[in-house]
Protein backbone atom coordinates (compact mmCIF):
# COMPACT_ATOMS: atom_id res chain seq x y z
CA UNK A 1 0.00 0.00 0.00
CA UNK A 2 1.44 3.35 -1.04
CA UNK A 3 0.92 6.55 0.92
CA UNK A 4 1.90 9.83 -0.63
CA UNK A 5 2.75 11.55 2.62
CA UNK A 6 3.61 10.26 6.07
CA UNK A 7 2.79 11.96 9.32
CA UNK A 8 3.50 10.67 12.79
CA UNK A 9 0.51 9.58 14.83
CA UNK A 10 0.82 9.60 18.59
CA UNK A 11 -0.25 6.47 20.50
CA UNK A 12 -2.53 7.38 23.41
CA UNK A 13 -0.98 5.68 26.45
CA UNK A 14 -3.69 6.90 28.78
CA UNK A 15 -6.65 9.20 28.46
CA UNK A 16 -7.92 11.61 31.13
CA UNK A 17 -11.41 10.92 32.40
CA UNK A 18 -12.30 14.52 31.64
CA UNK A 19 -11.68 14.02 27.94
CA UNK A 20 -14.59 14.83 25.68
CA UNK A 21 -13.91 11.90 23.38
CA UNK A 22 -17.36 10.59 22.59
CA UNK A 23 -16.59 7.44 20.65
CA UNK A 24 -14.02 4.69 20.47
CA UNK A 25 -13.76 5.54 16.80
CA UNK A 26 -11.14 8.12 17.78
CA UNK A 27 -8.77 5.17 18.26
CA UNK A 28 -7.70 2.46 15.90
CA UNK A 29 -4.67 0.20 16.09
CA UNK A 30 -3.63 2.11 19.23
CA UNK A 31 -3.27 5.46 17.48
CA UNK A 32 -5.02 8.75 17.99
CA UNK A 33 -6.82 9.93 14.89
CA UNK A 34 -8.91 13.04 14.20
CA UNK A 35 -12.67 12.96 14.05
CA UNK A 36 -14.57 12.83 10.78
CA UNK A 37 -14.75 16.08 8.86
CA UNK A 38 -18.22 17.21 9.85
CA UNK A 39 -19.29 18.37 6.41
CA UNK A 40 -18.76 14.87 5.04
CA UNK A 41 -20.57 12.91 7.72
CA UNK A 42 -23.64 15.11 7.18
CA UNK A 43 -24.55 12.88 4.24
CA UNK A 44 -25.62 10.20 6.70
CA UNK A 45 -28.38 12.52 7.89
CA UNK A 46 -29.97 12.28 4.45
CA UNK A 47 -30.11 8.50 4.37
CA UNK A 48 -32.26 6.05 6.25
CA UNK A 49 -30.75 4.21 9.18
CA UNK A 50 -31.64 1.04 7.33
CA UNK A 51 -28.91 2.00 4.88
CA UNK A 52 -26.24 1.51 7.56
CA UNK A 53 -24.15 -1.53 6.73
CA UNK A 54 -21.64 -2.00 9.51
CA UNK A 55 -19.89 0.11 12.17
CA UNK A 56 -18.26 3.04 10.45
CA UNK A 57 -14.49 3.01 10.73
CA UNK A 58 -12.13 5.92 11.14
CA UNK A 59 -9.63 6.25 8.30
CA UNK A 60 -5.99 6.34 9.33
CA UNK A 61 -2.63 5.61 7.76
CA UNK A 62 -0.82 2.79 9.59
CA UNK A 63 2.49 4.55 10.18
CA UNK A 64 5.24 3.34 12.46
CA UNK A 65 5.80 5.53 15.50
CA UNK A 66 9.29 5.60 16.96
CA UNK A 67 9.26 5.14 20.72
CA UNK A 68 11.82 7.26 22.50
CA UNK A 69 13.65 5.54 25.33
CA UNK A 70 13.41 6.98 28.81
CA UNK A 71 9.99 8.51 28.22
CA UNK A 72 7.22 7.56 30.61
CA UNK A 73 3.54 7.39 29.75
CA UNK A 74 1.90 10.59 28.55
CA UNK A 75 -1.71 11.68 28.53
CA UNK A 76 -3.66 13.01 25.58
CA UNK A 77 -5.81 16.06 26.32
CA UNK A 78 -8.48 17.21 23.90
CA UNK A 79 -9.61 20.83 24.12
CA UNK A 80 -13.11 22.07 23.34
CA UNK A 81 -11.97 23.36 19.94
CA UNK A 82 -10.80 19.87 18.99
CA UNK A 83 -7.07 20.52 19.46
CA UNK A 84 -4.95 17.62 20.76
CA UNK A 85 -2.22 18.08 23.39
CA UNK A 86 0.24 15.59 24.83
CA UNK A 87 0.72 16.13 28.57
CA UNK A 88 4.01 14.77 29.91
CA UNK A 89 4.60 13.49 33.45
CA UNK A 90 6.63 16.62 34.23
CA UNK A 91 3.71 18.85 33.23
CA UNK A 92 5.08 19.80 29.84
CA UNK A 93 2.46 20.23 27.10
CA UNK A 94 2.98 19.67 23.38
CA UNK A 95 0.35 20.39 20.73
CA UNK A 96 -0.15 17.45 18.40
CA UNK A 97 -0.73 17.76 14.68
CA UNK A 98 -3.68 15.97 13.13
CA UNK A 99 -2.85 13.28 10.62
CA UNK A 100 -3.80 14.32 7.10
CA UNK A 101 -5.18 11.60 4.91
CA UNK A 102 -5.22 12.01 1.15
CA UNK A 103 -7.95 10.65 -1.10
CA UNK A 104 -5.51 8.08 -2.44
CA UNK A 105 -5.02 6.79 1.11
CA UNK A 106 -8.78 6.57 1.50
CA UNK A 107 -9.17 4.55 -1.68
CA UNK A 108 -6.39 2.19 -0.57
CA UNK A 109 -8.23 1.45 2.67
CA UNK A 110 -11.05 -1.08 3.03
CA UNK A 111 -12.88 0.54 5.92
CA UNK A 112 -15.21 2.81 3.95
CA UNK A 113 -18.57 1.10 3.92
CA UNK A 114 -21.37 3.64 4.25
CA UNK A 115 -23.09 5.96 1.77
CA UNK A 116 -20.26 8.51 1.91
CA UNK A 117 -17.41 7.92 4.36
CA UNK A 118 -15.72 11.02 5.72
CA UNK A 119 -11.98 11.64 5.65
CA UNK A 120 -9.63 14.53 6.31
CA UNK A 121 -8.67 15.52 2.79
CA UNK A 122 -6.65 18.15 1.00
CA UNK A 123 -6.91 19.56 -2.53
CA UNK A 124 -10.64 18.82 -2.85
CA UNK A 125 -12.54 21.83 -1.54
CA UNK A 126 -13.77 25.27 -2.49
CA UNK A 127 -10.87 26.71 -0.48
CA UNK A 128 -8.49 25.06 -2.93
CA UNK A 129 -10.36 26.71 -5.82
CA UNK A 130 -9.97 30.06 -4.05
CA UNK A 131 -6.24 29.35 -3.65
CA UNK A 132 -5.79 28.81 -7.41
CA UNK A 133 -7.86 31.88 -8.30
CA UNK A 134 -5.81 34.03 -5.89
CA UNK A 135 -2.56 32.65 -7.33
CA UNK A 136 -3.75 33.63 -10.80
CA UNK A 137 -4.26 37.23 -9.67
CA UNK A 138 -0.65 37.43 -8.49
CA UNK A 139 1.05 35.42 -11.24
CA UNK A 140 2.38 36.62 -14.56
CA UNK A 141 0.01 35.98 -17.47
CA UNK A 142 2.18 33.16 -18.83
CA UNK A 143 2.06 31.35 -15.47
CA UNK A 144 -1.67 31.64 -14.85
CA UNK A 145 -3.91 28.58 -14.97
CA UNK A 146 -6.91 28.46 -17.27
CA UNK A 147 -9.70 27.78 -14.77
CA UNK A 148 -12.62 25.71 -16.06
CA UNK A 149 -15.71 24.83 -14.01
CA UNK A 150 -18.12 22.09 -15.13
CA UNK A 151 -21.48 22.04 -13.34
CA UNK A 152 -23.80 19.05 -12.99
CA UNK A 153 -27.55 19.49 -13.64
CA UNK A 154 -28.33 18.01 -10.20
CA UNK A 155 -26.32 20.76 -8.50
CA UNK A 156 -28.00 23.43 -10.58
CA UNK A 157 -31.40 22.05 -9.58
CA UNK A 158 -30.45 22.16 -5.90
CA UNK A 159 -29.24 25.77 -6.12
CA UNK A 160 -32.28 26.77 -8.18
CA UNK A 161 -34.56 25.41 -5.45
CA UNK A 162 -32.60 27.32 -2.79
CA UNK A 163 -33.13 30.65 -4.56
CA UNK A 164 -36.59 29.94 -6.07
CA UNK A 165 -35.24 30.21 -9.61
CA UNK A 166 -35.70 28.13 -12.73
CA UNK A 167 -32.71 25.93 -13.56
CA UNK A 168 -32.00 28.00 -16.67
CA UNK A 169 -31.89 31.24 -14.64
CA UNK A 170 -29.82 29.66 -11.86
CA UNK A 171 -27.39 28.34 -14.45
CA UNK A 172 -26.83 31.70 -16.11
CA UNK A 173 -26.45 33.47 -12.78
CA UNK A 174 -23.94 30.84 -11.62
CA UNK A 175 -21.93 31.64 -14.72
CA UNK A 176 -21.86 35.30 -13.72
CA UNK A 177 -20.77 34.44 -10.18
CA UNK A 178 -17.89 32.20 -11.23
CA UNK A 179 -16.73 34.60 -13.94
CA UNK A 180 -16.65 37.40 -11.34
CA UNK A 181 -14.29 35.28 -9.22
CA UNK A 182 -11.90 34.80 -12.13
CA UNK A 183 -13.07 31.53 -13.72
CA UNK A 184 -12.50 31.52 -17.48
CA UNK A 185 -14.98 28.93 -18.80
CA UNK A 186 -18.16 27.30 -17.42
CA UNK A 187 -19.53 24.07 -18.94
CA UNK A 188 -22.55 21.85 -18.37
CA UNK A 189 -21.79 18.17 -17.67
CA UNK A 190 -25.05 17.21 -19.44
CA UNK A 191 -23.10 17.37 -22.70
CA UNK A 192 -20.65 14.75 -21.42
CA UNK A 193 -23.51 12.55 -20.23
CA UNK A 194 -24.50 12.08 -23.88
CA UNK A 195 -21.29 10.11 -24.37
CA UNK A 196 -21.83 8.13 -21.17
CA UNK A 197 -25.35 7.12 -22.23
CA UNK A 198 -24.34 6.19 -25.78
CA UNK A 199 -21.39 4.09 -24.64
CA UNK A 200 -23.48 2.38 -21.95
CA UNK A 201 -26.12 1.50 -24.55
CA UNK A 202 -23.62 -0.08 -26.92
CA UNK A 203 -21.78 -1.86 -24.12
CA UNK A 204 -25.01 -3.48 -22.95
CA UNK A 205 -25.87 -4.72 -26.45
CA UNK A 206 -22.38 -6.21 -26.79
CA UNK A 207 -22.64 -7.91 -23.40
CA UNK A 208 -26.12 -9.28 -24.15
CA UNK A 209 -24.93 -10.79 -27.41
CA UNK A 210 -21.99 -12.60 -25.78
CA UNK A 211 -23.73 -13.75 -22.58
CA UNK A 212 -23.63 -17.44 -23.60
CA UNK A 213 -19.85 -17.37 -24.02
CA UNK A 214 -19.24 -15.11 -21.01
CA UNK A 215 -21.50 -15.74 -17.99
CA UNK A 216 -20.19 -12.60 -16.23
CA UNK A 217 -21.47 -10.36 -19.03
CA UNK A 218 -24.87 -9.95 -17.37
CA UNK A 219 -26.31 -8.38 -15.40
CA UNK A 220 -24.51 -5.22 -16.42
CA UNK A 221 -24.30 -2.87 -13.45
CA UNK A 222 -24.20 0.93 -13.82
CA UNK A 223 -20.88 2.66 -13.15
CA UNK A 224 -21.77 6.36 -12.82
CA UNK A 225 -21.96 6.35 -8.98
CA UNK A 226 -18.52 6.39 -7.30
CA UNK A 227 -19.98 5.54 -3.89
CA UNK A 228 -21.28 2.28 -5.32
CA UNK A 229 -18.02 1.62 -7.18
CA UNK A 230 -15.94 2.20 -4.05
CA UNK A 231 -18.17 -0.20 -2.10
CA UNK A 232 -18.09 -2.82 -4.88
CA UNK A 233 -14.30 -2.79 -5.18
CA UNK A 234 -13.72 -2.99 -1.45
CA UNK A 235 -16.50 -5.32 -0.40
CA UNK A 236 -17.11 -7.69 -3.33
CA UNK A 237 -13.91 -7.25 -5.34
CA UNK A 238 -13.14 -9.76 -8.07
CA UNK A 239 -16.63 -11.31 -7.92
CA UNK A 240 -18.50 -8.15 -8.87
CA UNK A 241 -16.02 -6.21 -11.03
CA UNK A 242 -16.68 -8.14 -14.30
CA UNK A 243 -20.36 -7.13 -14.14
CA UNK A 244 -19.72 -3.39 -13.77
CA UNK A 245 -20.01 -1.24 -16.89
CA UNK A 246 -16.64 0.10 -18.02
CA UNK A 247 -18.18 3.35 -19.26
CA UNK A 248 -16.90 6.44 -17.46
CA UNK A 249 -19.25 8.69 -15.52
CA UNK A 250 -20.21 12.10 -16.98
CA UNK A 251 -17.79 13.78 -14.55
CA UNK A 252 -14.81 11.84 -15.87
CA UNK A 253 -15.88 12.18 -19.50
CA UNK A 254 -16.09 15.97 -19.11
CA UNK A 255 -12.64 15.64 -17.53
CA UNK A 256 -11.34 13.95 -20.68
CA UNK A 257 -13.05 16.51 -22.89
CA UNK A 258 -11.60 19.48 -21.01
CA UNK A 259 -8.06 18.16 -20.56
CA UNK A 260 -7.73 16.75 -24.08
CA UNK A 261 -10.18 18.06 -26.70
CA UNK A 262 -10.70 21.53 -25.21
CA UNK A 263 -7.02 21.91 -24.32
CA UNK A 264 -6.08 21.25 -27.94
CA UNK A 265 -8.73 23.71 -29.12
CA UNK A 266 -7.19 26.40 -26.91
CA UNK A 267 -3.63 25.34 -27.76
CA UNK A 268 -2.64 24.68 -24.15
CA UNK A 269 -1.38 21.57 -22.37
CA UNK A 270 -3.51 19.73 -19.76
CA UNK A 271 -1.33 20.96 -16.89
CA UNK A 272 -2.13 24.56 -17.85
CA UNK A 273 -5.83 23.97 -17.11
CA UNK A 274 -7.29 23.80 -13.61
CA UNK A 275 -10.55 21.87 -13.95
CA UNK A 276 -13.24 21.99 -11.24
CA UNK A 277 -16.55 20.14 -11.21
CA UNK A 278 -19.63 21.00 -9.15
CA UNK A 279 -21.35 17.80 -8.04
CA UNK A 280 -24.27 16.63 -5.85
CA UNK A 281 -22.20 14.27 -3.68
CA UNK A 282 -18.87 14.06 -1.88
CA UNK A 283 -18.11 10.63 -3.37
CA UNK A 284 -17.27 12.42 -6.62
CA UNK A 285 -14.16 13.75 -4.88
CA UNK A 286 -13.02 10.16 -4.45
CA UNK A 287 -13.75 9.38 -8.09
CA UNK A 288 -11.71 12.31 -9.36
CA UNK A 289 -8.73 11.18 -7.28
CA UNK A 290 -8.50 7.69 -8.81
CA UNK A 291 -5.17 6.92 -10.43
CA UNK A 292 -7.05 5.78 -13.55
CA UNK A 293 -7.89 9.43 -14.22
CA UNK A 294 -4.35 10.78 -13.77
CA UNK A 295 -2.01 11.76 -16.60
CA UNK A 296 1.50 10.53 -15.89
CA UNK A 297 2.81 12.55 -18.83
CA UNK A 298 1.53 15.89 -17.49
CA UNK A 299 1.21 14.93 -13.80
CA UNK A 300 -2.36 16.19 -13.57
CA UNK A 301 -5.81 14.73 -13.07
CA UNK A 302 -8.67 15.00 -15.55
CA UNK A 303 -10.63 16.72 -12.76
CA UNK A 304 -8.38 18.67 -10.40
CA UNK A 305 -10.98 19.59 -7.81
CA UNK A 306 -14.57 18.65 -6.98
CA UNK A 307 -16.83 20.94 -4.98
CA UNK A 308 -20.39 20.20 -3.96
CA UNK A 309 -23.59 22.20 -4.33
CA UNK A 310 -23.33 23.05 -0.64
CA UNK A 311 -19.80 24.38 -1.09
CA UNK A 312 -21.01 26.67 -3.88
CA UNK A 313 -23.59 28.04 -1.45
CA UNK A 314 -20.81 28.68 1.09
CA UNK A 315 -18.85 30.52 -1.61
CA UNK A 316 -21.86 32.70 -2.37
CA UNK A 317 -22.28 33.44 1.35
CA UNK A 318 -18.58 34.20 1.72
CA UNK A 319 -18.78 36.73 -1.11
CA UNK A 320 -21.97 38.22 0.35
CA UNK A 321 -23.83 37.47 -2.86
CA UNK A 322 -27.35 36.19 -3.49
CA UNK A 323 -27.68 34.20 -6.69
CA UNK A 324 -31.04 35.88 -7.32
CA UNK A 325 -29.44 39.34 -7.53
CA UNK A 326 -26.88 38.50 -10.23
CA UNK A 327 -27.28 39.29 -13.91
CA UNK A 328 -27.44 36.21 -16.13
CA UNK A 329 -24.75 35.12 -18.59
CA UNK A 330 -24.99 32.08 -20.90
CA UNK A 331 -22.83 29.01 -20.23
CA UNK A 332 -19.86 28.49 -22.49
CA UNK A 333 -19.74 25.99 -25.33
CA UNK A 334 -16.77 23.88 -26.44
CA UNK A 335 -17.78 24.79 -30.00
CA UNK A 336 -17.55 28.40 -31.08
CA UNK A 337 -20.32 27.86 -33.65
CA UNK A 338 -22.78 26.18 -31.28
CA UNK A 339 -24.25 28.13 -28.32
CA UNK A 340 -24.69 26.23 -25.06
CA UNK A 341 -28.22 25.34 -24.02
CA UNK A 342 -28.29 25.33 -20.22
CA UNK A 343 -31.85 24.00 -20.00
CA UNK A 344 -31.24 20.52 -21.44
CA UNK A 345 -31.26 17.20 -19.65
CA UNK A 346 -32.09 13.54 -20.34
CA UNK A 347 -35.25 11.60 -19.61
CA UNK A 348 -35.29 8.86 -17.01
CA UNK A 349 -34.90 10.57 -13.65
CA UNK A 350 -32.38 12.57 -11.66
CA UNK A 351 -29.58 9.98 -11.75
CA UNK A 352 -28.89 10.27 -15.46
CA UNK A 353 -31.56 8.13 -17.06
CA UNK A 354 -29.26 5.18 -17.73
CA UNK A 355 -31.94 2.50 -17.30
CA UNK A 356 -34.43 4.11 -19.67
CA UNK A 357 -31.94 4.94 -22.42
CA UNK A 358 -30.35 1.50 -22.39
CA UNK A 359 -33.76 -0.21 -22.16
CA UNK A 360 -35.15 1.62 -25.20
CA UNK A 361 -31.97 1.15 -27.22
CA UNK A 362 -31.68 -2.56 -26.39
CA UNK A 363 -35.35 -3.21 -27.18
CA UNK A 364 -34.92 -1.68 -30.63
CA UNK A 365 -31.42 -2.98 -31.38
CA UNK A 366 -31.89 -6.55 -30.12
CA UNK A 367 -35.60 -7.19 -30.71
CA UNK A 368 -36.78 -4.52 -33.16
CA UNK A 369 -39.28 -3.13 -30.64
CA UNK A 370 -40.05 0.56 -30.11
CA UNK A 371 -40.64 1.44 -26.45
CA UNK A 372 -42.51 4.71 -25.92
CA UNK A 373 -43.70 4.48 -22.33
CA UNK A 374 -41.74 2.76 -19.56
CA UNK A 375 -43.80 1.30 -16.72
CA UNK A 376 -41.98 0.82 -13.41
CA UNK A 377 -43.05 -1.79 -10.88
CA UNK A 378 -42.16 -0.95 -7.28
CA UNK A 379 -40.87 -4.00 -5.45
CA UNK A 380 -39.78 -3.95 -1.76
CA UNK A 381 -39.58 -0.13 -1.62
CA UNK A 382 -39.63 2.91 -3.88
CA UNK A 383 -35.85 2.69 -4.34
CA UNK A 384 -36.06 -0.78 -5.88
CA UNK A 385 -38.12 -0.85 -9.07
CA UNK A 386 -38.06 -3.00 -12.17
CA UNK A 387 -39.01 -2.71 -15.83
CA UNK A 388 -39.83 -5.67 -18.08
CA UNK A 389 -39.98 -6.05 -21.87
CA UNK A 390 -42.27 -8.90 -22.91
CA UNK A 391 -43.38 -10.45 -26.19
CA UNK A 392 -46.00 -13.19 -26.43
CA UNK A 393 -45.74 -13.79 -22.70
CA UNK A 394 -41.94 -14.27 -22.78
CA UNK A 395 -39.64 -11.91 -20.88
CA UNK A 396 -37.03 -10.45 -23.23
CA UNK A 397 -35.47 -7.86 -20.92
CA UNK A 398 -35.70 -7.29 -17.19
CA UNK A 399 -34.09 -4.13 -15.82
CA UNK A 400 -34.05 -2.68 -12.30
CA UNK A 401 -33.15 0.41 -10.27
CA UNK A 402 -31.42 -0.25 -6.96
CA UNK A 403 -30.82 2.90 -4.92
CA UNK A 404 -29.30 2.94 -1.43
CA UNK A 405 -27.06 0.33 0.16
CA UNK A 406 -29.93 -1.63 1.68
CA UNK A 407 -31.12 -2.48 -1.84
CA UNK A 408 -27.57 -2.87 -3.14
CA UNK A 409 -26.88 -5.48 -0.48
CA UNK A 410 -29.99 -7.42 -1.43
CA UNK A 411 -28.91 -7.32 -5.07
CA UNK A 412 -25.42 -8.56 -4.20
CA UNK A 413 -26.82 -11.45 -2.18
CA UNK A 414 -29.07 -12.51 -5.06
CA UNK A 415 -26.19 -12.36 -7.52
CA UNK A 416 -23.92 -14.44 -5.31
CA UNK A 417 -26.64 -17.09 -5.02
CA UNK A 418 -27.20 -17.00 -8.77
CA UNK A 419 -30.78 -15.79 -8.21
CA UNK A 420 -30.68 -12.36 -9.86
CA UNK A 421 -33.17 -12.21 -12.78
CA UNK A 422 -31.91 -8.92 -14.20
CA UNK A 423 -30.07 -8.03 -17.38
CA UNK A 424 -29.21 -4.51 -16.25
CA UNK A 425 -29.34 -2.64 -12.92
CA UNK A 426 -29.01 1.12 -12.44
CA UNK A 427 -27.16 1.19 -9.10
CA UNK A 428 -26.87 4.36 -7.02
CA UNK A 429 -25.55 4.68 -3.47
CA UNK A 430 -27.95 7.38 -2.30
CA UNK A 431 -31.62 6.66 -1.59
CA UNK A 432 -33.71 8.57 -4.16
CA UNK A 433 -30.62 8.87 -6.35
CA UNK A 434 -28.31 11.74 -7.24
CA UNK A 435 -30.79 14.57 -6.60
CA UNK A 436 -30.63 13.48 -2.96
CA UNK A 437 -26.83 13.36 -2.87
CA UNK A 438 -24.97 14.22 0.31
CA UNK A 439 -23.49 17.37 -1.22
CA UNK A 440 -26.86 18.90 -2.04
CA UNK A 441 -28.28 21.81 -0.05
CA UNK A 442 -29.97 20.90 3.20
CA UNK A 443 -33.58 21.67 4.02
CA UNK A 444 -34.28 24.74 6.16
CA UNK A 445 -37.81 25.56 7.23
CA UNK A 446 -39.23 22.56 5.38
CA UNK A 447 -38.86 18.79 5.47
CA UNK A 448 -36.16 17.04 3.51
CA UNK A 449 -38.87 15.31 1.48
CA UNK A 450 -40.50 18.61 0.54
CA UNK A 451 -37.16 20.03 -0.58
CA UNK A 452 -36.39 16.91 -2.60
CA UNK A 453 -39.82 17.14 -4.26
CA UNK A 454 -39.09 20.74 -5.30
CA UNK A 455 -35.64 19.80 -6.64
CA UNK A 456 -37.12 16.90 -8.61
CA UNK A 457 -39.86 19.14 -10.04
CA UNK A 458 -37.29 21.66 -11.25
CA UNK A 459 -35.07 18.95 -12.70
CA UNK A 460 -37.95 17.24 -14.52
CA UNK A 461 -39.07 20.57 -16.00
CA UNK A 462 -35.94 20.80 -18.15
CA UNK A 463 -36.15 19.97 -21.84
CA UNK A 464 -34.88 16.49 -22.66
CA UNK A 465 -32.60 15.59 -25.51
CA UNK A 466 -31.81 12.29 -27.24
CA UNK A 467 -28.06 11.62 -27.32
CA UNK A 468 -28.17 10.11 -30.81
CA UNK A 469 -29.66 13.34 -32.15
CA UNK A 470 -27.00 15.67 -30.77
CA UNK A 471 -24.96 16.62 -33.84
CA UNK A 472 -22.04 17.98 -31.78
CA UNK A 473 -21.65 14.60 -30.07
CA UNK A 474 -21.64 12.83 -33.44
CA UNK A 475 -19.01 15.24 -34.77
CA UNK A 476 -16.80 14.71 -31.73
CA UNK A 477 -16.87 10.97 -32.25
CA UNK A 478 -15.21 11.69 -35.58
CA UNK A 479 -12.99 14.71 -34.85
CA UNK A 480 -11.82 13.81 -31.38
CA UNK A 481 -12.17 10.05 -31.08
CA UNK A 482 -11.50 8.91 -34.68
CA UNK A 483 -14.76 6.97 -34.92
CA UNK A 484 -17.03 5.04 -32.54
CA UNK A 485 -14.92 1.85 -32.59
CA UNK A 486 -11.49 3.43 -32.19
CA UNK A 487 -8.88 2.95 -29.48
CA UNK A 488 -9.52 6.55 -28.42
CA UNK A 489 -13.07 5.62 -27.42
CA UNK A 490 -11.65 3.09 -24.97
CA UNK A 491 -9.02 5.56 -23.80
CA UNK A 492 -11.25 8.57 -23.18
CA UNK A 493 -14.71 7.10 -22.52
CA UNK A 494 -14.00 3.86 -20.64
CA UNK A 495 -12.12 2.84 -17.50
CA UNK A 496 -11.31 -0.16 -15.30
CA UNK A 497 -11.80 -1.23 -11.69
CA UNK A 498 -9.59 -2.75 -9.02
CA UNK A 499 -10.37 -5.11 -6.19
CA UNK A 500 -9.12 -3.73 -2.87
CA UNK A 501 -7.62 -6.25 -0.48
CA UNK A 502 -9.44 -6.35 2.83
CA UNK A 503 -7.65 -5.59 6.09
CA UNK A 504 -8.81 -7.40 9.21
CA UNK A 505 -9.21 -5.09 12.18
CA UNK A 506 -10.99 -5.28 15.48
CA UNK A 507 -13.73 -3.04 14.08
CA UNK A 508 -14.73 -5.13 11.07
CA UNK A 509 -14.79 -8.57 12.69
CA UNK A 510 -18.31 -10.00 12.65
CA UNK A 511 -18.98 -11.58 16.01
Structure description:
With 511 residues, this protein is an alpha/beta fold. The protein has 15 helices and 18 strands. The protein has helices at residues 38-41, 103-108, 126-138, 153-162, 167-181, 190-209, 226-240, 250-265, 283-288, 309-318, 354-367, 405-416, 448-460, 471-479, 487-493; strands spanning 27-28, 31-32, 75-78, 84-87, 93-96, 146-151, 185-188, 220-221, 273-279, 294-295, 300-301, 305-308, 344-345, 377-378, 384-391, 394-403, 424-428, 463-464. The two termini are 27 Å apart. The model is unreliable at 1-66, 107-120 and 506-511 (pLDDT under 50).
List the helices and strands and how they pair.
Blueprint: E1 27-28, E2 31-32, H1 38-41, E3 75-78, E4 84-87, E5 93-96, H2 103-108, H3 126-138, E6 146-151, H4 153-162, H5 167-181, E7 185-188, H6 190-209, E8 220-221, H7 226-240, H8 250-265, E9 273-279, H9 283-288, E10 294-295, E11 300-301, E12 305-308, H10 309-318, E13 344-345, H11 354-367, E14 377-378, E15 384-391, E16 394-403, H12 405-416, E17 424-428, H13 448-460, E18 463-464, H14 471-479, H15 487-493
Helix pairs in contact: 4-5, 4-13, 6-8, 6-11, 7-12
Give a short summary of the structure.
The chain is an alpha/beta fold and 511 residues long. Helix content is 33%, strand content 14%. A five-stranded mixed beta sheet has the order 8-17-16-15-14, sandwiched between helices. Strands 7-6-9-12 form a four-stranded parallel beta sheet, sandwiched between helices.
